[in-house]
Sequence to fold (468 residues):
Amino acid sequence: MNKTGVADNLDFHTEKWNEYEAILHSLKDDILVTNTDGIILRVSEVTGSIYGVKSDDLIGKSVYDLEKQGLFTPLATPIVVKNRKKTTFVQTTKDGKKLLVTGIPVFDVNGELFRIVSYSHDVTELLEMEKYLFQMSDEMERVKSELELMRNRNYFVEGIIANSEQMRKVINTSLQIAEVDVNVLFLGESGVGKSLIARFIHNKSPRRNGPFIEVNCGTIPEQLFETEFFGYESGSFTGANKKGKMGLAELAEKGTLFLDEVGELSLANQVKVLKFIQEKQFYRVGGTTVKQVDFRLIAATNQNLEEMVKKKTFREDLYFRLNVVPITIPPLRERPEDIIPLIEKVLQQFAKKYNRKKIIHEDAMRLLLSMEWQGNVRELINLIERLVVTSSRQVIMREDLPEAYLTRLADELSFQHSGRTLKEMLEDYEKKILLRAKKRYKKQVEIAKALGVSQPSIVRKLKKYGLE
Fold:
């Protein structure tokens, strides 16, 4: 077909356009038709409102001129003419609207491009929402980071040091279960801080405004446990208070009951505690009125309750009642990352308490790091308090450590004292500490951070001992 035939064909379609135009205007979308030169031939009734003009005023206009006037940009016509295929892009109108425009090429019977049809959807709100969500995502990450920093800060405020991965897991688990009244059993050696973290859970729980009642089951004589725990009525026994006495269990109303050293309970008292935990009610000694108590239970022990159950020294039913969520707190020797910040924190507290400004010399710090700390956090705190009040200088030196600790250090690291100077023994200490640190950490900067010294110091010392 020649060009004349094409023109005749177009005239035919123009004559029939009324029908097609009716269909066009029935659509609710923005539709615009141009020729290859960018002259607008047809528009839907919606199109004008999209661009803020009358639809009829667009007919016969050049899209290139309209772009220069700022009506919209970029243009569908040149893009489709170049690509000769369906193309989608984002267009901006003069009033800042964002349109998702799709340009479609229309070919004649000879395969020649002779029309470009474009339609669009207003996606301004979607793009704004995407931008908002992106900003919210950044904001949430920022808040998350701030919460993490605040959470870490709270560890220090509440006396908990959690630099090590093991302690972070303990704290994260504690935070996760704090919101629900599930029974918790803390396991770990004496002095690791079980009561401290039990109180931490209480402070983070919905019961934070209620009492935290700590019952040390190992310090209450077996014969007195029932009267101390449940209380008694007046005249219950000789020497009893005339007004009676409220027990520790009753004091835990709306709060947390913490049974420390629960493994020390006698079998007879285990039965009474189990019944109380199950029913959350009891009778005072000598009383006839049932007392109801609403409490959250946390228990702790430094004993192996599973072995005690096997040996029939601890009731199996009580063990399973307590052991709903077991949390093992690692000993201090297994989390050396916590030792330096713990020392610094405790040193600061006692320096303020006794009004004595103190710092610890690097050599003394290395000795403290090398210790096994059988008494864990409690032992370390006691030693630092002792050093603060007994050392005569502002700088606490290694000589200020009690002789018993120096002797114990030598025993722990299996050193031979005979014929060796203190300097030689300390150098051996230092070398062993560095070897241990090299096995744990891959980078020198990590070793320096863990040992509380500068990286250049680590480089020099590794070179000194042939460990670089």
